[in-house]
UniProtKB/TrEMBL annotation:
Keyword Transmembrane in record: yes
Keywords: Membrane, Transmembrane, Transmembrane helix
Name by which UniProt lists this protein: Uncharacterized protein
Annotated transmembrane regions: 100-118, 130-147
């Protein structure tokens, strides 16, 4: 099997990481893709996400926290991880009943990271609304993968 066809679903997940909706558009799900793109832009603008990212990368965590609209930002992880899973599944990835579990659990962990980002500190340093959610991806994927494997083993 040709490498590009074998990893076709991986391409779609990377495009969804770049911007939710791109994977769907590449899968031929144009309306769904543009809906995800629209929702991403809406949440991005309403939560001030681009400015939050910029400030966080410049080390201005308190400023980022102060301009964050958490009511909107908390929608982002679910949209982001659902769009990734959906594009991956439609492209032929995600075989099995529990393929969505790592994505769901990671979205939950990232949302919780978002919620606690204004107060959570590591060595007296606030991580803010970008860094704590990003770091929450790692335990989210690990826990999600363990749950998925456990369910696959015990649920027939």
């Amino acid at each position: 099997m040709e490498l590009s066809k074998k990893h076709h679903h991986v391409d779609k997940i990377f495009w969804s990481i770049a911007l939710p909706g791109f994977g769907q558009i590449l899968n031929g799900k144009i309306i769904k893709g543009f809906l995800f793109v629209f929702l991403e832009f809406l949440i991005n603008v309403k939560s001030n996400f681009n400015q939050i990212i910029l400030l966080s990368f410049h080390g201005k965590i308190e400023e980022a926290i102060n301009i964050t609209d958490y009511q909107w930002l908390m929608f982002y992880p679910c949209l982001y991880f659902y769009a990734m899973w959906d594009a991956w599944r439609d492209a032929g990835g995600g075989k099995g009943r529990f393929s969505s579990i790592p994505f769901v659990v990671t979205a939950y962990f990232v949302t919780v990271g978002c919620i606690y980002s204004p107060i959570f500190k590591v060595f007296s340093i606030k991580l803010g609304p970008v860094w704590l959610p990003i770091l929450s991806v790692i335990p989210g994927l690990l826990v999600g993968y363990i749950i998925k494997k456990t369910l696959e083993r015990f649920v027939k």
